[in-house]
Amino acid sequence: MLLEAGRGSGRGTTKWKCAATAGLGWEASRSAGICLDSLAPTADEQAGIPGMLSALGSLAAALWAGFHLLSLLLGAVAFLFIADFLKRNLRRPRNYPPGPPRLPFFGNFFQLGFKQPHVQLQQLVKKYGNLVSLEIGDQPLVIVTGLPLIKEVLVHQEQNFMNRPMTPIREYTFKKDGLIMSSGQTWKEQRRFALSTLRNFGLGKKSLEECIQEEAYHLTEAIKEEKGQAFDPHFKINNAVSNIICSITFGERFEYQDSQFQELLKLLDEVTYIEASMQCQLYNLFPWIMKFLPGSHQTLFRKWEKLKLFVSRMIEEHNRDWNPAEPRDFIDAYLKEIEKNSAGTTSFHEETLICSMLDLFFAGTETTSTTLRWALLYLAVNPEIQEKVQAEIDRVIGHLQQPSTADREHLPYINAVIHEVQRMGNIIPLNVSREVVTDTTVAGYCLPKGTTILTNLTALHRDPAEWATPDTFNPEHFLENGQFKKRESFLPFSAGKRVCLGEQLARSELFLFLTSLMQKFTFRPPNDEKLSLEFRMGLTISPVKHHLCAIPRGR
Predict the structure, then answer these.
(1) Which is it for strands 548-552 and 521-524: parallel, antiparallel or unpaired?
(2) Which residue(s) pair with 542 in the sheet?
(3) pLDDT, tens digit (0-9, with 9 covering 90-100), for 314-344
(4) What predicted TM-score, i.e. pTM, was given to this entire model?
(5) Smallest Cα–Cα separation from 250: which of 174, 370, 364?
(6) What is the CATH number of the domain that holds 376?
(7) pLDDT tens per residue, range 506-545
(8) Are 136 and 165 in contact (CB under 8 A)?
(9) What range does the domain containing 516 cover?
(10) Which among 546, 549, 543, 547 has a CA at the least distance from the CA of 523?
């Protein structure tokens, strides 16, 4: 039919006929005599065919390579997930404490949060019991709750829980030196030396009490300068408390107007807060990645270096006029130990001295000053309790006599208030961590070597079975028939051989500073500010920023 149409249609029809037959096979077209020339590719088209085939080949190769790479990546990810799953489950003994499900690589990192992890943890305790297993990254961790189990870990089997776990941040900052986070022989040598040296320079002696009394006087004078107006008590209290440990370690105190020392106190406050941030915790999980990334962990490292530099300068100054026969303070005594260790057989060297000084500076400043700030805040919020404290002081020592530690047994109410502040302030809610030294059984559960242990002081200090009003500030918890009563379920300084070495100093400071302040002032909220008991989460739990009015008391 096409041929017939072609005969009678002229030239234009031939083009249509050739186009119509283009779909036929080459041989069929040839035998039919249908426009063979028009079906053959042109010279330009012939030249383009190899290029087009080459492009198609390259595209196919690229697609295959991409598919191959994607397969490799998926396979690698699957392998890592399986390896992570097997590693977590194979190392976990059959009778391991129960706990919530873990995410690959992160473990339970996101379940605890960062604003109030110690509070969220209590929900897990209710669900899983007094031994709860978690994982932060790939680090196994067990939370111990309840006085019997806490005593089992910290006292009865303490030899199996004596070490400190070393996080990447701590290792980067302190290596394995110092007093707080060291373990083994280093810890034994450093603690023994610190205790004996602190005693030599006044710890537990009348001379140190006089030092605290003098500093209490300077603090009350500094607060008096505020003339009853609203002020932030944070760094005045920090300065006063820090001067006590500085007088022992550096051999000097610092004025409240000393800008360099104020900067140092701010650095200490900042590192305490920053180290609990999410980015710093991510550094502990993935240090090999996070060390290349910006963030608060890099800020933390810079601030710790500044603190180290301050201590290094103090050591240099001591070296210039050091007399081994007449040690003036902790640094001088330590330099003598370094000189004895010329063979390098002990842990005494300058880097350890720097770390030990920072540990003493941190522990001797942050914990006590934070407790005092909580004390003033709770008393300002509870004026009726503040009035009872002042009435007791007026009755026993009056307005003019300076308080002394000998007065403590005659002032049971203020002693009870201090203990209640420590219970409610809860400044170290999960205690300082421990590490299992060897495979150990607790309450029938196996805790493998290397497991991190946290003792749940939050639950202990808020246990309704132990405290009549666990969530209310109530000094009566520590009173019986008007006399002070010790409570076994009260462990703010921990227990066992790794109990806080500054406990005695802290107790003296808390009593003398708070009694002196209550003797001289009544603390009230400013007229335009409602005081809050909200807290700021860091290495310690501290009050959020606030102001107080210190009204001088009449005589």
Answers:
(1) antiparallel
(2) 536
(3) 999 999 999 988 888 999 999 999 998 877 7
(4) 0.84
(5) 364
(6) 1.10.630.10
(7) 999 999 999 999 999 999 999 988 999 999 999 999 999 9
(8) no
(9) 175-426+462-552
(10) 549
